[in-house]
């Protein structure tokens, strides 16, 4: 399966709790923190919910 690199580019301060938990579930901890994950349908769905807070690139 393909891997993607997800980088948090905006803060979760003043966001709703659901978006904060989604960022946390993706493994992101702070701005400019990146994680490499498998591009499963569940991960893609999570990224779509917080796409305004993250940057995605294919690996």
UniProtKB/TrEMBL annotation:
PROSITE patterns membership: RIBOSOMAL_L30
Protein origin, superkingdom: Bacteria
GO molecular function terms attached to this record: structural constituent of ribosome
Domain Large ribosomal subunit protein uL30-like ferredoxin-like fold: 4-54
SUPFAM superfamilies to which the protein is assigned, alphabetical: Ribosomal protein L30p/L7e
GO biological process: translation
GO cellular component: cytosolic large ribosomal subunit
Keywords annotated in UniProt: Ribonucleoprotein, Ribosomal protein
Family classification: Belongs to the universal ribosomal protein uL30 family.
Subunit details: Part of the 50S ribosomal subunit.
Protein name: Large ribosomal subunit protein uL30
Organism name: Sphingobacterium wenxiniae
Gene: rpmD
């Amino acid at each position: 399966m393909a891997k993607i690199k997800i980088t948090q580019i905006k803060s979760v301060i003043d966001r709703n709790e659901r978006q904060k938990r989604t960022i946390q579930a993706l493994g992101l901890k702070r701005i400019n923190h990146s994680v490499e994950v498998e591009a499963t349908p569940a991960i893609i769905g999570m990224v779509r919910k917080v796409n305004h807070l993250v940057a995605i690139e294919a690996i």
